[in-house]
Amino acid sequence: MSDYVVHFAKDYEQKSAYENMLSILGSRVIKARNPFGLVREKAPDPASQRAACFSEIPLHRLRRLAEARSEYGIVFRKDFVVHRGANPIMYAYKDHDMTAALKQIVKSAKKDPDHPIWRITPFVDAPGKYGNSTYFFEWEREWRKAGHFKFSEDDVASVLEPQED
Q1: What Pfam families does the entry give (predicted)?
Q2: pTM, whole model, 2 decimals?
Q3: Run means of pLDDT, 10 residues per run, the chain, 165 residues
């Protein structure tokens, strides 16, 4: 789809998306603040499920994603983020056999924080209908890197911001 992935900055801790983008660029670290994945609440070590997130999308579709995320983003070459441990996430649809199998493996590994399944689970989401809401974001082609994502200024391919900025 693209040779690039984007980390979209967002409003966080009383700072605007713009301020957070500048903070990330200044520190050269995208912090893995939140746990992600199919079973993020069930991991023996919830910190193991924290990830830095990226989106892979063709450049002509960036506007669609910016409207959903933010207008501020940091662009990296996909081969660079792969080299740093990032990976596209897998979608195991809610109520499908694959999702049930993953949950069964997780259940058997619940008391073993060193089980290899915990290195996979931050990279699996389950699109579907949940009560009155739906979660279908496969079009985004999300990538994640478990743990913090460190980079140098030379690793940044581009920065996204509104033209008026």
Answers
A1: AbiGi
A2: 0.88
A3: 91 93 98 92 92 88 80 96 96 89 93 94 90 75 96 96 83
